[in-house]
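Input structure tokens:
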């Protein structure tokens, strides 16, 4: 009788130790299921595509003839015509026209696109040529002409003898025309 009771005791202990409580699903039709999302099928996508063909999202944003003429002129100009180029040491980069704010007389030859220079992005070019480039970080509102530039600070930067480039969010940005004139920007003292 001992072996039999011993076996039943081991089986009983194994059953209680080895069991894992499985949670019961909630009552209901969708209990325990992930929420179902009705994804659009082919017919829905094709219908949406056909509806969007006739809509022009640009239409109605403004029909000002002056803006349309400037946009047309800008779109017809080449990328090189709309850019300032800096080159040195076999590398070159393109910057938005108006982002180079000051060039010392000794470095005028670097503000052009050299023949055979490898075209790289601004960060790589600046990393290799930071000894003669001086980025001036400005706010977007200043570049757009909504806030005045500190011309006194620009004058101090010019005295360093480096090429001054306007940047916003670590990328070159053009300054609105007329913002570097004395009338458009106010002189601020430190």
């Amino acid at each position: 009788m001992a072996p039999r009771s011993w076996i039943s005791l081991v089986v009983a202990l194994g059953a209680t130790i080895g069991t894992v409580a499985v949670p019961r699903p909630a009552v209901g039709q969708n209990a325990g299921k992930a929420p179902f999302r009705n994804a659009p099928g082919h017919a829905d996508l094709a219908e949406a595509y056909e509806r969007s063909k006739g809509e022009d999202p640009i239409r109605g944003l403004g029909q000002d003839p002056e803006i349309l003429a400037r946009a047309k002129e800008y779109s017809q100009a080449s990328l090189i015509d709309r850019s300032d180029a800096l080159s040195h040491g076999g590398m070159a980069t393109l910057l938005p026209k108006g982002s180079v704010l000051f060039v010392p007389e000794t470095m005028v030859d670097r503000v052009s696109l050299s023949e055979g220079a490898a075209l790289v992005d601004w960060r790589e070019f600046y990393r290799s040529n930071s000894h003669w480039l001086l980025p001036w970080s400005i706010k977007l509102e200043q570049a757009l002409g909504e806030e005045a530039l500190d011309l006194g600070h620009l004058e101090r930067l010019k005295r360093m003898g480096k090429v001054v480039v306007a940047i916003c969010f670590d990328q070159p940005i053009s300054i609105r025309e007329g913002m570097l004139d004395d009338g458009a920007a106010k002189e601020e003292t430190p």
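The mean pLDDT is 80. The first helix runs from residue 2 to 18.
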